[in-house]
Amino acid sequence: MRASHQTRGTGRALYSWAVAVVLERRQCLAPRRCCRRGAGVTTVIHSGEHALAGSHARETYVHPSVCLFTDSLEPSGLGEHMLTLAVELQASYDLSFVCPATSHGRPLLDRAARMGLPTLALATDGQAGSELGRWLRGRQLQLFHSHAGIGWEGHGGIYAAREAGVPVVIRTEHLPYLITEPREREDHHRLMPRVDRLICVSKHAHASFVEAGVRPEQLQVVRNGIHPRPARADREGVRARLGLSSEARLVLAVGRLTEQKGHRYLVQAAPRVIEQEPRAQLVVVGQGELADDLRELVRALGLEGRVHFVGQRPDVPELMAAADLFVLPSLFEGLPLVALEAMAAGRPVVGTWGCGTAEAVADGVTGRLVFPRDATALAAAILEALQQPALAARWGMAGRMRLEREFRAERMARETASVYEEVLVRTDAPAVGATARSPSDARTAQLDEGRVAGRPYALTWSKSESASDE
Question: Which of 77, 95, 394, 459 has its CA 20 to 30 A from that of 68?
């Protein structure tokens, strides 16, 4: 989700190009309808020529052509979500995959290509818009599914899809509504009439978009789901690879080293944890802009040899399986895949109240939740799990059961396909978002403020919307 100056420039260039083209040429969309056939959906495409031909019109049954798109330069979890959808939907849809060819995006493009999907490596310069438009027209898409890591991403792709004549546009927001800058709020508001349905990955995120002025009728909740990745719990082997004692109590955190993820509060909690549990070792997987600052904080607190930054690693499932506890101290999330992965591995999860995590982790049932930015409470929750192994084991088992019951990829894909089907059969109807309220009409209650990707954010959330063990 992190956006650099390059991200802003690339996104703004694509957005500006697309807006200019749409204002110049407001093409009419060719009418299409779709129907069910068998287990999947087959589309009945009526081209303009055939529609005018009366009795000579013919119907061609094909799998609907769907493009999975993101222009995020660091897709990470968002990209995993897209590929998970692709695995589940590939049998029923003619899928293609588009994302930037950055260091984070290229592996996703390669994996999509190995699945047999047509791919487009999106340029990160001013040519992205025209390149995408040509490619989309050649694909003759029925549906464009844009994935946004944060609210200011993905606008240009949607304008390009509409200009290319794509009749249905779906947008998934992978975080809550965080935009505070007036120009960007207005940009998002202007985009909504061009979006047939906006998917939110959690109920918390859904509430934030309603609060921001998006009409509830335009919104749909499809909570994240994963394919659990089984791994052998090799406690001693993992600790040996990390240079730790076989007796170490391994506290694991996985995530980009950015302000959003709250790692500074985890480091600040470490002295109290180590004081009361001397065997504790904190291992942090990930890279990011705060890496140097966090290492300096470790030195300042005298935690060398107790807090370990190990960068990006390919063996996260093995680390999960061998850990005693997983910690996610984020300030906010959409619905974090990494927490679901920890639950799938049977690990207890210590996380934070607020948007996203509290919908996955049931406090006192699958782990413990504390308020964001509270290092003291975070330390107490970590110690609760480390000092009560039987309790931690119960939390881990309950988390695995909850994951299997509510957060499987198959359920996520079924619900996403249902959104596709519903909107495809209503292609001739006006876009639901055509009468979206202005952001100026939205309420302004806020419970958290800060900065993400160098920009201010404000987030409303309610503790009452947390997970329950139903």
Answer: 459
Confirm if 21 and 163 have CB atoms less than 8 A apart: yes
The verdict on 281 and 400 lying in the same domain is yes
Same domain, 141 and 254: no
HSE-up of residue 396 (Cα within 13 Å, Cβ side)? 21
Total domain count, the chain: 2
Which positions ≥6 away from 425 have C-beta within 8 Å? 33, 34, 35
Same domain, 384 and 436: no
Distance of alpha carbon 273 from alpha carbon 284, whole angstroms: 15
Residue-range definition of the domain harbouring residue 76: 5-226+410-459
Cα separation, 421 vs 425, in Å, equals: 6
Query: Measured between alpha carbons, how far is 316 from 347 in angstroms, rounded to an integer?
Result: 13
**Structure-token pair, residue 180:** 């505070």
Judge whether 466 lies within some domain.
Answer: no
Domain identity same for 135 and 217: yes
- 402 and 429 inside one domain: no
| Within-domain flag for 372 | yes
In a domain, 344, yes or no: yes
Cβ distance 203 to 406 under 8 Å? Answer: no
Nearest Cα residue to 349 out of 282, 396, 384: 396
Same domain, 66 and 176: yes
Q: How far are the Cα atoms of 284, 319, 337 from residue 255, in angstroms, in the given order?
A: 8, 13, 10
Burial (CB count within 10 angstroms: exposed 0-12, middle 13-18, buried 19+), residue 27: exposed
Question: Do residues 93 and 194 share a domain?
Answer: yes
385: which strand partners? none
Distances (CA, A) of 391 to 201, 347, 381, 398: 30, 11, 12, 11
**pLDDT by position in tens, the chain (length 470):** 444 444 454 454 454 444 343 334 333 333 333 433 333 334 343 333 333 334 444 455 568 999 999 999 888 889 999 999 999 999 999 999 999 989 889 999 999 999 999 999 998 776 666 789 889 988 889 999 999 998 889 999 999 999 999 999 999 999 999 998 999 999 999 999 999 999 999 999 999 999 999 999 999 999 999 999 888 889 999 999 999 999 999 999 999 999 999 999 999 999 999 999 999 999 999 999 999 999 999 999 999 999 999 999 999 999 999 999 999 999 999 999 999 999 999 999 999 997 789 999 999 999 999 999 999 999 999 999 999 999 999 999 999 999 999 999 999 999 999 999 999 998 753 333 333 333 333 333 334 555 554 555 445 444 545 565 44
- On whether residue 301 sits in a domain, the answer given is yes
CATH number (domain holding residue 377):
3.40.50.2000
pTM of this prediction? 0.80
